[in-house]
């Protein structure tokens, strides 16, 4: 994108750690009519957790909306830049006005960049949605991988690793989006030479609840992919454990493994970044 504008201005409304934006770029919080705010057409997030959205609605109903949404002027109304979950929750509650920052964002390319950066820093995006966001920055905003890394505050190798996930079969990508397998599992599957082997091992991961470490071991020994036998899930106890794992997986939006022992057991919760760890801890502690 030629003559790309710096997006640091205005980002303080999206990411609290960014210094305060100049006065001409942002305005004081205003209360806008919800009906006049159109959704963000560049929203990089493909799925929203209904349970999480319901919890947000309850919080807003009890305490009000703490964090304003961010919009730009568009046609006769406004267009959302950041805060789609908040906007959806307010609409469901029938609230007619919402606090908002209004940013001076002139181009669709700036909109896309802001939407992706905001989501990566503030939302619990899964690895595939993040990868798709990076790809859109490259394809639609004509950024290099190095420029994307600078924009989102990551190493270039991190951006590259996420982009490689988009080479996986669509069924595996959907499995990551649904929380069936983690970023670590998907990253290991990418190392296999073809989609047939990737799908075969993916099925063993899901059926056998394989850990990331076990998955990595199998990818280093491809001949075991066809012979590895996942643990049986036919007993009532195992069905109960699977049900608990599925509920935790949906709640935390990441891979969860419950490993019973003769007395007690352990719960394994996977994460792929420090931000992801903080998000999971906040969900567990109810912050």
Please describe what this structure looks like:
This protein is α/β, with parallel strands linked by helices and 287 residues long. Among the domains are: 11-121, Conserved hypothetical protein from pyrococcus furiosus pfu- 392566-001, ParB domain, CATH 3.90.1530.10; 236-285, no CATH class. The chain is 48% helix and 12% strand. It is built from twelve helices and seven strands. The strands form two sheets. The chain has a five-stranded mixed β-sheet, sandwiched between helices. The chain has a two-stranded antiparallel sheet with strand order 6-7. A hairpin with a 4-residue loop joins β6 and β7. α4 packs across α6 (156-164). The longest helix has 17 residues, at 236-252. It is globular. Residues 1-26 and 227-234 have low confidence and may be disordered.
Describe the protein's topology:
Blueprint: E1 30-33, E2 37-38, H1 50-63, E3 69-74, E4 77-82, H2 84-93, E5 97-103, H3 108-122, H4 127-140, H5 145-152, H6 156-164, H7 170-177, H8 183-190, H9 195-208, H10 212-220, H11 236-252, E6 256-260, E7 265-269, H12 274-285
Parallel strand pairs: 2-4, 3-5
Antiparallel strand pairs: 1-5, 3-4, 6-7
């Amino acid at each position: 994108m030629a003559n790309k504008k710096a997006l640091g201005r205005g980002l303080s409304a999206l990411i609290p750690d960014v210094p305060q934006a100049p006065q001409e770029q942002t305005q004081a919080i205003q209360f806008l009519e919800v009906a006049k705010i159109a959704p963000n057409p560049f929203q990089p997030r493909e799925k929203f957790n209904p349970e999480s959205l319901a919890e947000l609605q309850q919080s807003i109903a009890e305490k009000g909306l703490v964090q304003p949404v961010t919009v730009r002027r568009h046609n006769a109304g406004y267009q959302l830049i950041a805060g789609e979950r908040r906007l959806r929750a307010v609409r469901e509650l029938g609230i007619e006005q919402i606090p908002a920052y209004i940013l001076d964002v002139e181009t669709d390319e700036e909109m896309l960049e802001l939407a992706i950066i905001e989501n990566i820093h503030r939302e619990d995006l899964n690895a595939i949605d993040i990868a798709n966001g990076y790809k859109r920055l490259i394809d639609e905003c004509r950024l290099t991988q190095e420029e994307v890394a600078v924009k989102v505050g990551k190493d270039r190798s991190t951006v590259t690793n996420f982009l490689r996930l988009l080479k996986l079969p669509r069924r595996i990508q959907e499995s990551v989006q649904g929380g069936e397998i983690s970023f670590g599992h998907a990253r290991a599957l990418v190392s296999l030479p073809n989609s047939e082997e990737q799908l075969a091992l993916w099925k063993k991961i899901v059926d056998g609840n394989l850990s990331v470490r076990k998955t990595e071991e199998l990818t280093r020994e491809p001949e075991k992919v066809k012979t590895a036998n996942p643990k049986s899930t036919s007993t009532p106890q195992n069905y109960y454990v699977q049900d608990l794992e599925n509920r935790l997986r949906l709640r935390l939006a990441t891979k969860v493994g419950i490993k019973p022992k003769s007395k007690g057991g352990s719960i394994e919760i996977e994460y792929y970044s420090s931000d992801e760890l903080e998000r999971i801890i906040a969900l567990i502690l109810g912050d």
